[in-house]
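Consortium newsletter contribution from the modelling node. Members have asked for a concrete example of what our holo predictions look like. Here is one, prepared for the glutamic acid complex that several groups have been discussing at recent meetings.
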Amino acid sequence: MTIAETPHSKLVTSAARLRAAGRIVIKIGSALLVDPESGKLRRHWLEGVAADVAMARARGQDVIIVSSGAIALGCRHLNLPKGVLKLEEKQAAAAVGQIRLSHAWQEVLGAHGISTAQVLLTLDDTENRRRYLNGRSTMGTLLKLGAVPVINENDTVATSEIRYGDNDRLAARVAELASADCLVLLSDIDGLYTANPSTDPTARRLDTVTGITAQIEAMAGDPVSGVGSGGMRTKVAAARVALAAGCSMVIGSGHVERPISALEAGANCTWFLADRSPRQARKLWIGGSLGPKGRLIVDEGAAKALAKGKSLLPAGVRAVEGEFSRGDAVVVVGPDGKALGRGLIAYASEDARAIAGHKSGEIENILGYRGRDEMIHRDDLATDD
Ligand code: GLU
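And here is the predicted structure:
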């Protein structure tokens, strides 16, 4: 079940929404993790977040953390001054801080018997379809094995042209990549306000947003936060990406001991509600916006399996037409010549031709490497219903 698949009448509280989510991404800003005065990690607070993560995992939910704080932590250890740093100083600070950050997560999650996986991403990893598919499948495997991925931008190699730049945007891309249905942005502000609440006494917090209109964009104003690089503008930009991916998003305050529990207990926040599930969003994207590069002609058995929502295995593929790379969109055609749908193919055309008609167990022998069992995984397939 996902948030978008649960009847709306049942999802009126934060607790109901958070509990309905199958996969949650929690983004934590630098200002929460690292004390702005001392530059030290706020260990006790982190333990509270870990307890919340353990609570969600115990309910059967997948959790992914997007954690900032590497640069802030590294600055303290390298005695770099606060304030404006050169790019290479930031990159050096990130290298020193990231190792401490991951270690801290490993300790606090380990106390609950949870394995932590460090994943560092650059913009290319979510923009390039091949790398995107690899990242997606690794993330799925980590979650299946019970680990909690702790993600940050790979600041040490990412220069300005190839940066996400802020972890709000990164978190939204991660939510999309992992087909999460809930993104929690923990921040120093408890939601989206109609105006800047620190300067405008008439500012009012919104409970729910259902679409990113020009009016909502206007409310985001300019960045306000000190330590992190995000402000309300990057949060609304993140909401746009998340909603398009079928992922609902909530902005809540991280200035409480157990921020997820606090949200469930009714703390102030703003919800951005998606109107589709991640699966529906993905199918729309595959079916609508990607130009197909080739065709796979499948047999009767495969056509039936696809109609039942199954993956396409190489054994059911009779012919492969066109030249394409791994991750490209292809049209799947039934034995009668009728298009059955489109999907992202796990093999380049040459390899796809070589394994067509063969059992998945033979792939390694034929290609010399062990690729995916499926020619097109069901999550990457948009069938014409
Ligand atoms: N990736 C940066 C860090 O870990 C944080 C970026 C942000 O604050 O949004 O220090």
